[in-house]
Amino acid sequence: MSTHVKVEEKLFQNRYRVDGGRPHIQIKDAEVCVSQCGTQPCTVCCPAGCYTQENNGRVVLITDGCLECGTCRIICDDFRNVTWEYPRGGYGVLFKFG
Ligand code: SF4
Ligand code: SF4
Known about the structure:
Blueprint: H1 7-13, E1 15-17, E2 25-27, H2 30-35, H3 42-45, E3 51-53, E4 59-61, H4 71-75, E5 82-84, E6 92-94
């Protein structure tokens, strides 16, 4: 039997505390995502699947489960359309090691 542990299973072991109404990452201008960005890489690069591409071309960001990896900030460098901060103390992802 394989002992390989899938990323999803590892992620499930992390706990996440949602800071209600205070998302620590936000899309600055939703229109830029629709009319300028093109490939919308954040919708495929976020390991937690926080960015979703809608049928109408809009991108929805829900930060629950965000791993604070910073990928979306880097991937959006051309447009700098993401504001990014760490969550307030005590909120956000609580990594479980081991
Ligand atoms: S990469 Fe930036 S500009 Fe493009 S869809 Fe994502 S947030 Fe919007
Ligand atoms: S910081 Fe990482 S996990 Fe959080 S929304 Fe951005 S890409 Fe996703």
